[in-house]
Amino acid sequence: MSTSIGRAVLEGAQRLQNAAVAEPRREAGSLLAHVVGRDRSFVIAHADDSLTVEGRAAFRSLIERRASGEPLQYITGHQEFFKLDFEVTPDVLIPRPETELIVEASLGLLHNDPEPYFADIGTGSGCIAISMLHELPAARAIAADLSPTALRVAQRNAERHGVVDRLELRESDCFSALEASGSFGLIASNPPYVSDDELKSVQREVSHEPRAALAAGSDGLSVIRRLLREARPFLRSGGHLVFEVGFGQSAAVEHLIDRRVWKLLEIRTDLQRIPRTFVLQGK
Prior knowledge:
This protein is α/β, with parallel strands linked by helices. It has eleven helices and eleven strands. The chain has helices at 5-18, 24-36, 40-45, 53-67, 72-76, 100-110, 127-135, 148-160, 196-199, 222-230, 250-256, and strands spanning 3-4, 50-51, 78-81, 84-87, 117-121, 140-145, 167-171, 184-189, 235-244, 262-269, 275-282. Strand 3 and strand 4 (84-87) form a beta hairpin.
């Protein structure tokens, strides 16, 4: 028996609601759109169209994956970030809206630089570096990550968005594979900042993301400490360090800043007014 697109979405949404998935109707619509290779507006406009038997089976399979807690972005393989669409896989952290604050702050600092040169530490999908290069046609960057599989995702995203010739990807544990030549005008990072205790109780969707992109020791600050301790020699005089912190970490991070090395310019808050992005200038 044939099923309409609208009916399939309703059935899928009910299954997701029963599985305690947030915004079940929207997520079901996104999964159906992925199955038919169109956008959600097509699904809405063609609710009375029939879904093929194959399409219905594929949709039900994706619904079950989502109901089990697998993130929508890993199922569909992409996530929008700063006006661009990025490939994401379970090898990389899913880009989040609050991380766009890093891009916004960094672009503001680099916009008067005729030849911007920056680094992205812990690049993952490459969303930060690629978004910045897309907005700054004269810029060049190095993007580093400890995971070779993540770097392959970043490579494909760089090729997709036409910036691969201006982006050098390096397998590196923070700064280990970079030269401390004081050449970067800016260093950006969305580092791991989840504590060991927090990892035990993260949302089931977050548990699907790579542990190395989340875990940062007993207090969640181990990588941020490294950034604050190691970044300065890689920056030219007056260069900037821009990085993200987790919920409730801003006071502790402020305490970690060596005021002999860094000047704290601002702490940007996200839409929930949570202190999220630190902007520092090297002395």
